[in-house]
Every structure is written in structure tokens, then in C-alpha cells.
From TrEMBL:
UniProtKB keywords: Membrane, Transmembrane, Transmembrane helix
Annotated transmembrane regions: 20-40, 60-85, 105-127, 147-166, 178-202, 241-262, 282-300, 306-328, 340-361
PANTHER family: ABC TRANSPORTER PERMEASE YTRC-RELATED
InterPro entries documented for this protein: ABC-5_transporter, DUF6449
Domain (DUF6449): residue spans on this chain: 433-521
Protein name: DUF6449 domain-containing protein
A Pfam cross-reference name: DUF6449
Amino acid sequence: MRSKTSSFNKEIIKQDFRNVGWISIGYFLGLFFIVPMQLFMEFGRDEPRITDDRGLFGGIFAYELQSLFLIVMPVLMAVFLFRYLHVKGASDFAHSFPMKRGKLFHHHILSGMILLILPILLNYLVLVITAGVTDVTEYYTLANASYWLWLFTTMTLLIFVAGVFVGTLTGLSAVQGILTYILLVLPVGLYGLVAFHLSTYIKGYSGDMVLDRSLQYFSPLVDLLEYRSYGPEEVSVPVEVLSLFIYGGIAILFYVASVWLYKKRPLEAAGRALAVSALNPVFKLGVTFCFALFGGMYFSVAQNTYSWMITGYFIGGTFGFAAASMLLEKTWRVFNLKNLKGWLGYGVAAGVIIAAIPLLWQSYESYVPEKDEVEKVYISSGYWNYQELIDHERDVPYITTDEGVQSALNLHNQLIEVSDPLKDGEDSFFFVYELKDGSKVYRQYQISEERVREEKKAVYETEEYKSIEYPVLSLDSSEIDQLLIHPNAGPGGEELYDPEKISAFMEALKRDINDLSYDQMVAPRGLSSGVSFTVDGQRDNPYHAQLFPSYENTIEWMKQEGVYEQMMIQSEDIHRVEVYEWPENRDYDHDYVHYVFDRLKESGVEPLEVTNKDQVEALLQGRENQEDGKYIVAFYFDERNTNHYDLLSFDEGDAPNFIKEHFE
């Protein structure tokens, strides 16, 4: 009678449970104390904490700590479960069993999956049972808990099989753990580095926008730690439904690749950095490329010149090539003719790529839409201003008039002519064109203001741009429940609740803003007061404003209401004033007035001290936000607190005579 043998060997499963069961127990206890136990402790609170719409992914259940277990435990399982591959004696012993290599691999994979899924499933059952016997809707719903189960199961299996895949590629357990995380983060790291370098070579390229809109899709670990509105009930959860399906598919691909590599892997590979020798050149090139990009980024940020960026490529690439060679050859003696030829080959290829990038993107850099193609255009000081409007589902204040669109196109053309993507200018411009065919064009530039002053002035003085720069212009007084006016530096302040007073104030404020000239917008005179609004019961809103002494209509309204002294800084509020001469010959990283002032204080420069009230009143005519000038004026409001001050500045032509006479 023919004997039968089962394809399932329970002894291997039992052995795996004995060897790595502690990881499963640790995973269960970690999740249990963070999620179900935390829920039980919340039940015992006299005053339960305020919950949010994230449910089991929210602050009460410490989702960040949950993620730590989710990221660490599957990798530990992969490392310890397949450690026998990386120890010569253990590898020979394991493969001496009368069992095909593929079947042995499947048994170990099955053990790991069971040991990782079981802790998640048990915690889920505790949550479901708890929801069945008591009201937990303040903390989570069954849909939220089921989504938690799906997310944790999918991501755990993905990270586990990624670790197994790396384990079949390497012969060292320590390298397996490190390379697993590198594999999971490498795409996002490369994406970020490439985006940075493109933004330094290509005029108009917005690295901020590219990274913000798609960065999380290049790494499951980054995706895990971001919250967006997806999933059942449209609550904030870390990973969207489509991504979970994609990650499940990627896990299957890792599994298939792991099986194939496991069968092809030579037994003598234990102890080698890479088990598959054919991948040595790929590994070496990848490490070299990554270190070169990082070196170029480091030196370009520090020095802002292409020569230093290329130096960074050379230093980083050389270090990466040498490090990869040492790891693969297990010796520091890698400085030989063979490696020198490989390094030179890499250098030539890298040089060709660097030279080709600007040529390949010339049409991108020079493109400006024709006026008859443009439906409307948005301009702001940066991508984040635009994205904030999108995130909060607010209307984007576009420029639509012929005059406004033309002024935007003129500014764009000038920016292409004079901007340098590697230079960090004081001014930033972000353009969004919505074309008549429905497509959108995005560009971003940084440059010093004086190089585009006339074109910028034409844009700033349009009524539509003022609606972008001053969101308060779109605020109806009927929506305002309360407004608070308070000097930004000095004492005082006033709250308004009366709808009639609020309406009159808003009418005066809007008239003043619409009358502002370009110079008043970029460098207003005098110390300002801030205005914050409570709109429809919400204090957190985009509406805010600054009041300056040049706002004639608003100042007149304050005086009529008898609140001018409380709302605006007076000379009586100032304890003393220090005046410094703006140094002509200076080697500073920035020309911002606060930065220059700090350097002067650090250098021990003696200022002119002013306490005379008439002179203080004259000094209150200085400008805010200047990036250059002749004199810096510091106003102190409290003799006991030298950190409580505000700054204005003067050009030589508009400075009071007593300052000029002192510094002659």
C-alpha cells in the first residue's frame, strides 16, 4: 500500500512558534495596552477627554505609538524568522530536510503571517465585543474599527513580506533590517532629492507643490503617518482605500519575488552583504547616486552656488561608491584600478545627466501662456498660501480682468529673464494659470524685489490682487460676531461686539486697503495693530488685518469713537528707543531688518538712545519690513523686558535730521 505524506508540516510551524512567538506576544500586548486598555481607562475617567473624528487613529489611542509597533514588529518577524538563511550552519541544516526549498519557504511565511495577524485580530475582537456591550460611539464605530483591522493587517503583511524579500537578497541579518527600511523609504527619499535638485536647475519648478501633493504615495511608511479624509464615513484616516488595495498588490509581488529568489539563492551566500552577485553593480550605483544627490543638496543649501553643488556631487558620490564597495567586498582596501574605472564611469554618466537637465527643460522654463489662452490667474507669495485655500475648501481669489492678467504675464516674463533657481531671493512668487481649455499651469520663483519692482508694482496695485493679499476684503461685516484690535507690540486693545460699529469699522478698513499704493503695501509706515475676527462663532479663520497710521479712514473712525489711544501705539507707550546705523559693508546671510539688528546687538555696536517724546513721535514714521535702509530703530515698551521690542527703519532721505547729525 502506497504511503501518503502531507504537504503541510506542522512541526516546522510549531518550531517557528517557539522561536518567534515572543514577537507575536509583544505585538499583541503593545496594541492591547495602546487601544483596548486605553478605552477601558477612558471609561473610568470622571471627565472623559474630548475625542476627534479619527476614532482609533486619533490622539486618545496614540496612533503614532500604534504605528511604531506596526513598523517595527513585522521587520523583527522577518529578521528572526529567516535568520537561518544568514548563518552558514543553520542554513545547511534547514535545507538538509527532505523537503523542497519552496515548500520550506511557504511554511515559514505562513508562520509569520499567522503570528502577525493574530494579535491584530484578537484586539479587534476585544473592540467589537466592547462595542456590543456598551456605548463606544464617542470613541469609535464598528466601521472605524473594521477599517483599523484592514489597515493594520494589510500594512503589517506588506512590511513583513518586504522584510522577507530583502532577507532573500542579503546574507546578513543586520543588513536585512536596515535595507528593509531603506527599501520602504527609498522611493520617497529619491523623489524628494530629485525634486529638490530639479527646483535648483529649472526656473519655475515648484518643489514644494510636487512634494506636498504626491510625497506620501512613494512610501507606505510616510503614508501611514499622514491623515486625510478617506474611508468609511469620510473620517480622517491615515491611508485611503485605493492605496490599501495597491499595497496589498505590492505585498503579493514581494511574495512572488521572494519565492523566486529563495529558490535561486545559493546556500553559500550566508554572511555576504548581497546574496545575488548580479545585483552588486545595481547596489553600488544606487548607493553612489543617493549619496551624490545628498552631497549636492547639502552644499547647495549651505553655499547657493552651482560650483559647490557639483563639489557636493563629487564628495557625496565618492563617499557612497567607496562605502558600497567596502560593504560588498568586506574590506577597506577598495582603492584599486578596477574600482577607479567604475567610479570614473559613474562620474561621466552623472556629468552627462547634469548637463542635459537644463537642456531638456528649456521649453518648460520659457513657457508663458498667451493672454487669449488664460481664463484667470492666481498669484501669491508661495504654494502653501494657495494650498491652504484648497484644503479649507475656500474660493480661490483669481485675477480675471484683462489688465490684471496682462500685468501677471508681464511679471512672469520678467521673472523668467532675471531669476536664478539656486538663489534664495527675498520675494517669492507662485502662479496658477487656469486656461480656457480647463488645464492649469503652475510656476514658482524666488528673487530680490528690486529686479522686478515695476512689474510687481503693476500687479500689486490691481484691485483683484488686493483681494488675494488681504482676505479681509471678502469678509462681510454681517458674518463677524466679534473683532479684537490690539497693538502688536505695545499695551492696550479693544473688542467690538456692536454690529453697527463693526460695520462702520469694516467699511473704513476696506476703503483704506483699496486705496493702498504699492509702497504702502510692501513697506508701510509706523507700528501696526492687529485685527483678529470671530466669524460665525469660529476664531480659527483666514481673516486678519494689520492697521497702520496711514489708514486715514480707519484712524478717523477710531478717533470719533474715542478708542484711538487704546487701539494704536502712542509715543507715551514707548519707554525708550535705540537707533542703529545700517552697516554698509557687511557680510550677512540675510538683509532682513530683524536679522541685521540681531547681528548689530551681538557685535556690541553702541546705538543712539532716544527718550524725548517729540523725537520718539518722529521715529514712529519709520517703515516696516524693509530689507535695506540707512537706520534701524528699535522701540522698547518695558524697561524690565529687553526682549519686548519692535523695529522700524529709515532710508537716508526720509530720516529725521537729529539721526543724521548724530551719525555724521
